[in-house]
Each structure stands twice: as C-alpha cells, then as structure tokens.
Amino acid sequence: MEETISLQDLFKTLRKRLWLIVMSTVIAATIAGVISFLVMTPIYQASTQILVNQTERQSEAFTAQDIQTNLQLINTYNVVIKSPAILNKVIEELGLDETAGSLNEKVTVNSEQNSQVVTVTIQDPNQKQAVEIANTIATVFEQEIPQLMNVDNVNILSPAVMPANPSPVKPDPMLNMAIGAVIGLMIGIGIAFLLEYLDTTVKTEDDIEELTGLPVIGMISPIPDSDVNVANVVRTRRRRG
C-alpha cells in the first residue's frame, strides 16, 4: 500500500510541475542548438589510406612469427606518422602556421586488426586544408620511411579527395540538442521534486494527517457561490420585512 501511495505521489508531483519540466527541456534543447549552429566551429574530415606491403620472404610458408612482425611494423608506422620527423616536414611543405604538437592533435591513425592498410584521418576547420594535410602526410611518410627504417614497403592506396558538397563531422546539432533535452528533462524533474519538498503548505487532508499524526474525522465542505448569494438575498429581504 505504501509503495502504491508513493508511486501516486510521484506521478502527482510530475503532473503538477509538468509545465516546469517541459519548459526546462525546451530551453536546454534550444540552448544546445544555438551553441551548435552559431558558436561551435564546424570541423571537417579527410582520410587517406596507406598500404604496408609484406616484406619478401625466402620461404613460401607464412608463420605466426611473420604475422607478429608485420603487426609490430604497422604499430611502429602508426607512431612514426604522427612523429615530429613527419609532421614538421608537412608543416614546412604546406606553410602551416602551427606546431607539430598542434598538428598532431588533428591527426588520427588507425589500422584494422591483421590488416596491412593504415588509415590517416585529419580533422580541420577547413575542408580543403584537411585534404591537403592528409595527402601530404601520406606522401612525406612514403618518402621518409626508407631513410627512417631502411625499408621501402609503403604505398599510397587511396588519397584524400575534396568532396563536392563537404559537410562537417562535428558538431552534430541534432545529437547535441537531444543531449541538451535529456539534461533539461533531468534538471526539470529535479527542480520539480525540490520545489515539492520545500513546499510546506497544508492543502489536503492527507497533509493534515501527516503533520499531526491524527486521523481526519470530518471535513467542512466549501459553500458554492450560488448558495452564498441566495443566503444573502434571503437575509436582505428579512431585514426589509
């Protein structure tokens, strides 16, 4: 019984403060949308793929040691691509006004498990510059890897291209608005229960029972306005009579 009453009180509070919950949800979603569309800088993305060829082997057999060696080599390449030895040359060739550290933050290098393909992804506020950086990194890496590691087994598989209608990868206004709406909903519900907790006024017989600890044995019903008006008319007539 107590759980049923508590559940009823819960929905009663939500229904009572519904306007507050809806308003906070709408306001939070609107703020998130305004920030996404007008404040946050659009970020564009470009990717290029690099193929790491397997080194020549004397035997046709492909052992587990060969697999492990190739994986370690690709992991090493992932680090070399983002190293200052490569990025500084990219900055020099493109004339970028930034450091190797700041450029490093724009570069993401991924490789699928047991795959010889390395994907270099660039995120930049300028779509054209993102494409140029991605392709220049791949070119510089292909040129420098023979000197850095004394191997020549890297080829550009798929260069980055400039799309006809570039669209930013972030921010995602719809996602941000959805997140803002959820946050606003939670804030609204929290404020609703806080206001209900702080409200100490007595409104119902249940409030009286809770405050006094005594059962309510009777209630005085409110007198309708029509009855009050009739009673006043009768009294007036009696006085005149």
Automatic annotation (TrEMBL):
Pfam families in the record: GNVR (PF13807), Wzz (PF02706)
Keywords: Cell membrane, Membrane, Transmembrane, Transmembrane helix
Transmembrane regions listed in the UniProt entry: 18-44, 174-195
Coiled-coil features, chain-numbered ranges: none
Signal peptide: none
Name of the protein in its database record: Capsular polysaccharide biosynthesis protein
Source species, domain of life: Bacteria
Major site of localization recorded for this protein: membrane
InterPro entries: Bact_polysacc_biosynth/exp (IPR050445), GNVR (IPR032807), LPS_length_determ_N (IPR003856)
GO molecular function, one term: protein tyrosine kinase activity
Membrane topology, from the record: Multi-pass membrane protein
Domain Tyrosine-protein kinase G-rich: 142-194
GO cellular component: plasma membrane
Domain spans labelled Polysaccharide chain length determinant N-terminal: 3-94
Entry similarity comment: Belongs to the CpsC/CapA family.
